[in-house]
Design a protein that fits this description.
With about 130 residues, the protein is α+β, with helices and mostly antiparallel strands. It contains four helices and six strands; from the N terminus they run βββαβαββαα. It has one domain: Glutaredoxin (3-Layer(aba) Sandwich), CATH 3.40.30.10. The protein has a four-stranded mixed sheet with strand order 4-3-5-6. A two-stranded antiparallel ribbon has the order 1-2. Helix 1 links the parallel strand 3 and strand 4.
Length: about 130
Amino acid sequence: MNKIKIEAQDNQRLSVPQSSKIKIEVITSPTCPHCPHAKNAVNKFAKDNEYIKVVEYSTATHEGRKKSQQLDVRSVPTLFISGPGSADRIGFVGSPSQNQLKKMVGIAKGEDNWPKEEGLFEKLAKKLKIKIKI
């Protein structure tokens, strides 16, 4: 299998199989004031990471409207990130920062995990210093 060499954000060399490219779908609208920033952020991130493929769908086109309905998009900009490390698409609404893109792409590649959030029960048990075994 062919591999491509990429330069990671922290100057670390990585080897990624070509078949494991990350796909970022960007749903936009020509009247959206936040869409240009989202597109620029994604394109900049993709330019720095050649294993990423970006596909833009505009709601002004038939294909874009069809894709928006298929993915149940309610607002723009909306991103969907998919890759070999995640069974489902990762969805994001709004204009992402480079750090947010890095985190989502890491999850899509299988190199990172979703942050575990403590629920009310866990917070209460910690505050009351109660140990719970399940």
